[in-house]
Amino acid sequence: MMSRRAVRPVLAGLLLMGLASLGFARESPGGTDGALPSPREFFGFKMGEDRKLAGWDKLLDYYQLLARSSNRLRLQEVGKSTEGRPFIILFISSPENLAKLDHYRELNARLADPRGLSEAQGRKLISESKPVIIQSFGQHSDEVASAQTAAEFVYDSITRADEGATRIRDAVISIVMPSLNPDGTQMIADWYMKYVNTEHEAAEVPWLYQLYAGHDNNRDGFALNLLESRHFAQIVYRDWLPQAYVDHHQMDIGGARMVIAPYADPIRPNADPLVWREMAWYGANMGERLEAAGKQGVINSAIFYGWMHTGFHAITAFHNIAGMMTESAGLKLATPVYLHVDQLRGGAPGMPTYDAQMGMPNPWPGGWWHVRDVVEQQKIAAWATVDLAARNSETVLWNMYLKGTRQTARGADGPVKSYVIEVAQHDALTTKKLINLFLANGVEVQQADEEFVADDKLYSAGSFVITMAQPKQGLVRWMLGRTFYPDNAFTHDAKANPIRPYDVATDTMGEFMGVRSDPVGAPITAKLTRLAAPVPLMGSVAARTSDGYVLSTKLNDSFRAVFLLLEQGVTVRRARGGEGFTPGDFIVTHAAPAVLADVAHRTGVDFAALDGRKPRDAYDIRKPRVGLFKRYKGGNMDEGWTRLMFTQFDVPYTSLMDARIKKGNLNASYDVIVLPDDALKMMTMTGEPSKEEAHMAQPSDNTPPEFRSGFGEEGIKALQAFVQNGGILVTFGEAGDLPMQRFGLSLRNVVAELPPKDFWSPGSTLRTRFDIENPIAYGMPPEGLVLFYAGSTRQFGAGQVYELTSFEKSQDVSVIGNYAEREILQSGWLVGERVIAKKAAAVSVRYGSGKVVMIGFRPQHRAQTHGTFKIVFNALLNGPPAGR
Predict the structure, then answer these.
(1) First and final CA of the chain: distance in angstroms?
(2) Phi, psi (deg, nearest 5) at residue 144
(3) Whole-angstrom Cα distance, residue 803 to residue 788?
(4) 386-416: string of b/e by CB count within 10 Å (b at 16+)?
(5) pLDDT (tens digit, 9 = 90+) per residue, 279-319?
(6) Is the pTM of this model over 0.85?
(7) Whole-angstrom Cα distance, residue 880 to residue 884?
(8) Which of 8, 56, 415, 787 lies most in the core, judged by the most C-beta atoms within 10 Å?
(9) Are 568 and 594 in contact (CB under 8 A)?
(10) pLDDT tens digits along 252-261
(11) Do the beta carbons of residue 154 and residue 176 sit within 8 Å?
(12) Cis amide bond preceding 266, omega within 30
């Protein structure tokens, strides 16, 4: 029998023969591109070679060299990454097409929004247009293959002279995003190459590989909090609107070798059905090419749901783009792995066992798995995508016209004709931010020139109207409309247990942000003006007054203004109530006019004149010294998102690591310490891991010793002393276990350890009542929504709901907010409402001279849940003096 080493060259030869039969044989490049160095020549190794990685800085040099040397490639720097690296895209087409890019972009935009175009006009546009295909690489940076694949795919795309490649360049505008996370691409390469061939080879990077989001960066495809996400939105949602988009990823080590489109059930409805058929069409072409090339273990209609998080490859369906991902089997970074057949597993949607099946007729038998294996199959899938568009350009373009036309008609004829967002809301500035988010997503928004009535309700002049009679009406529906995750045979196992959604059960951004939107069933006849630019967020300062100014506590950005003022030494007081005041309003009496004007301009907050109003009571607030706990062990994404929110709102903070906690005497440095959502075991690295934690952990930790986490019993005692001596400890979600279990608080989490049949809330918005007289709920509405996870896996959060276990210290506990008595679910999926009815969502507990603020949900989830940001800000501002 031939050894596996001997088999590999044979398979390589068969691969080339198979590609040749499909019109993709590699020939010597001709023309001006013949002198271009291949990736192997430039980097000194073949892309995907064992234990080799090219970082972003060197990859960028290569792309710049290719762009300077080839008339088939154009490089555009869209902006900078979070850490300041160039974020680029690459246009690949014939020189003639590249010379007319602006023209093709305009034609493409018109096809994507065909309102007013007759069928004949649409056909004429199609005859002049070129399909646009966008593919992205390197988003999840520890999935190392795709950033390497991109270099080889780009080189082949501009140098190959065979008939298939020439046809693609002539017929298609191929846009490559060679790394959606340049910072992480460089970070992982630096980390891996530093330790390769040592005992620490392939150790997990100790921190987040995207400064704020880590692996969550692809969950930002609709909220656009990250710079990289905003660059993506500019290109994909507004400038180019491709007919198809593919994002190339890696997944777990065991199981299928590659997952391709289409997705598994359930799907999220309200996209044009044609978009799902297109995904299957592209996926079938990928599958055929992969199978013809001898690639084993390729599966479709499995593992990843059609109802997924609204990340880039999923949200594109509601932009009428056939959005897909490929998921190849992972490795240990660039270190190969060996797998026996009995280590290959099923147990996933669409793949109950690892056996031959319709979606995977040719299982991989096991053996060595290399990065090069991933590079090869990603390249085949990438070529298959652009080749399908080239061979079927008229159909691909006509489908774009059809999707836009049909979605517009569905929106016009549906029961909801538009969503109206009243301009005068609880937090008017956050309302404007939501509107600007829709504009960033390429959605048409109109504004009323005068007050109007719709569905018997009066709306103010300046209110916003988002019509459903537009191509992206599906996106509008999912970001604003009440949502219920499917509760059917697709979402339960054989024992009727609910199956966890891939991410959250709802993405209703209006609910997340605390902004009310009203579905309107009748056509709106008011005079409306389409917004051509983002709504400005610029505040003003009232005419100079000796009394001073008041800032509304209802506005998230008032807290930002206060943090900026405190940073500059301005005295700020807080009203506890009184005629003309909302509890928690901020009062500023002495500040330089230039300082006030600058803060108003930066935050959008209005400084209103006091005009003789006197609060019932007021107290001074001071700049808080905030410590945000940050650990190694791969980092904590919830901590990263908290850092981003703090940065966005100018919260003064420092990162607090294990070593500093263990030193003790924390009160000397901090007033408030924040523990983001995290498991007690992950914070302390003491005790036995839970089943879920054990599943997440590596069997042996080869992390370099200086990057190992855990503040242990010593740290727990230091945090306990910090609170007893007057500090404030704030916990999000599961981090509440630390004070609840180790400080001896008379509280319990009523949803802990409940089976999913008894309680289940996998990322749902729940109706909550807030005590607006409580300083930690200042500025909140009496009733609002919180995004709550529980009954899910640790990876996606384990929220807490509280009740007292003793009457002895009831006076030490104040309830910040509790869940409604009934009809708790607003959007998502909730099982076991009775378990949490009227129970506490967040509490404040006096402990010694300090207090513990336990917020059982993530109030700052992915920097998206603006509706509950104020709870965090209030907790940082210390509250009134004791006894007041």
Answers:
(1) 85
(2) -70, -20
(3) 17
(4) bbbbbbbbebbbbbbbbbbbbbbeebbeeeb
(5) 999 999 999 999 999 999 999 999 999 998 778 999 999 99
(6) yes
(7) 6
(8) 787
(9) no
(10) 999 999 999 9
(11) yes
(12) yes
